[in-house]
Each structure stands twice: as C-alpha cells, then as structure tokens.
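re: ur msg from earlier - yeah i can do the nicotinamide-adenine-dinucleotide complex, just paste it... oh wait u already did. ok heres what im feeding in:
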Amino acid sequence: MPGRLEGKVAIITGAGSGFGRGIAQKFVDEGAKVVVAELSKESGEKAAAELNSKYVATDVTKRESWQNLLEQTLETYGQLDIVVNNAGASYSNKPTGEVTDAEFDLCMNVNVKSIYLSTSVVVPYFLANNRPGSFIQISSTAAIRPRPGLTWYNASKGAVGIANKTMAVEYGPKNIRFNCVCPVVGSTGMTHLFLGKPDTEENRAAFVSTVPLGRPSTPADIANACCYLASDEAAFITGVNLEVDGGRCV
Ligand SMILES: NC(=O)c1ccc[n+]([C@@H]2O[C@H](COP(=O)([O-])OP(=O)(O)OC[C@H]3O[C@@H](n4cnc5c(N)ncnc54)[C@H](O)[C@@H]3O)[C@@H](O)[C@H]2O)c1
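and the outut:
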C-alpha cells in the first residue's frame, strides 16, 4: 500500500523537537520527502539524519531564510507541496503587566511573522507553477479557549487563526489550502513556559484536569491530524481550526 503522503514534499519548521519532530516522523512514514527547517543546528541535523531527510538551517522570522529554504527544497526534491508552520515561541507564564517588549516581539515574530513570511515566499511558487498547495499552521487551544498569564502568546495564536481563515478564502480558488491544528498542552520543549514552572506530571495535573479525555496531547496525536490535513483525503477541507485537545475546548 502506498503511504498517504507518497509523492509529496513537505517543509516542517521546528522539526528538531517536540511536535515538529513527531510530524516529520509521521510524514516520512507515510511516504513524504521532508525538509527539516530548524533554528537549532544540533537537533535539526540529528532529526534529518534519523529520518533520512534534508536539514536546512532556518530562522522562520527572516525572509532570506524562507527564500533559502524554498530554493534548497526545490534543488533537493524538485517540488514543494506542503508547509507545516510548527516552530513557535513563548515567554514563561506570568502576570500580563510584567511582559517585556522583547517577549512580546518574540511571540509575534516566531508565531505570526513566520506565517506571513512563509506564505509571502511560498504562495508565489504555487501560483507560478499552477500547483495545489497545503499550509498547516500549528496554532493552539490558546487561540480558542485561553488560560491566564499568557496574553500575548494566546493573542499571537489568535492572529494565526484569522490570518489562516482569510488566506483559505482568498486562495481557495487556486486550490491552495490553509488549515490550523490546535493542540492542547503536551510535553515538549515549550511546556514549562506554559506552566510557568518545570514540566512534571504533578505540575501538568491542573491543565490535564480540564481535558475530558484525561491526558496531555502527544506528538503522535498532532502528527496524525497534520497527516490527514496534508493528504488528499482532506482535499475539500480548508480554513478549519482542528482541535486536537481531548475535548478541552468543548
Ligand atoms: N507544547 C505544548 O503544550 C503546545 C500546545 C499548543 C501548541 N503548541 C505549539 O506547538 C508548536 C511546536 O512547539 P513544541 O511544543 O513542539 O515545542 P519545542 O520547543 O519542542 O519545539 C519548537 C521548535 O521550534 C524551533 N524554533 C524556535 N524558534 C525558531 C525559529 N525562529 N526558526 C526555526 N525554528 C525555531 C525550536 O528550536 C524547537 O525545535 C509551537 O508552535 C507551539 O506554540 C505547543
């Protein structure tokens, strides 16, 4: 049986760890060629070696970085079909009045500007080549049902959701799809920031107690949702916020 993503090429940002690493694994398992676009050289190279994929040193907040990423993807694999905007950043949970300008800028640059740049660079490639395309933004339940202490992280994910819907309607006629996946808390490199304390089972318990299915999300949960949205099975799905949250947002 061919994989569900056979013949497709995907860029996955932040694929060196956490959800991104899980998404890269699933995409490779389903037959896609994957480009690991990662700021951390160490984790990016490691992931690419393990997955027999291509690593491209990337800072998603920089236009030149996206231009280089597209060029290297086309040079290596000859085409591009899917972009998963997964790389994200946050400050540590704290009272909103204590957030610094640098922390605000970090959230907006890594979580929002990255999506502006990815579409600004990649959409013209899809249009010029008359190719269908699929963008998947890793948003958050924070965009739908925010918790206190993360105002500007939550707002950045809210911006992602509305930009995503706007582009879905704008580029639908060109068969370029835009979808968001909204994870509930998982256990990754960012989790201690959301909790405002170390990521232990005990510290996660208060968050998890509000999840009807009774556990945190895993990279495999997020990867399975991304695989569906990236595949041809989702050919008629665009502009959605797919909550992968064990019922948290109900
Ligand atoms: N962990 C959670 O509980 C949770 C919940 C909801 C949403 N999310 C979202 O999931 C996504 C993935 O985060 P994660 O939880 O796997 O955390 P993570 O820290 O394990 O992974 C994030 C990756 O992004 C990379 N990265 C950061 N800045 C970058 C940049 N400028 N350019 C390129 N790469 C960069 C990091 O090096 C890291 O490998 C983020 O968008 C995050 O907001 C996480």
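cool cool. The pocket of nicotinamide-adenine-dinucleotide is lined by residues 13-14, 16-20, 38-40, 43, 58-61, 86-89, 110, 138, 140, 183, 185-186, 188-191, 194 (CB under 6 Å). ping me if u need the other ligands too
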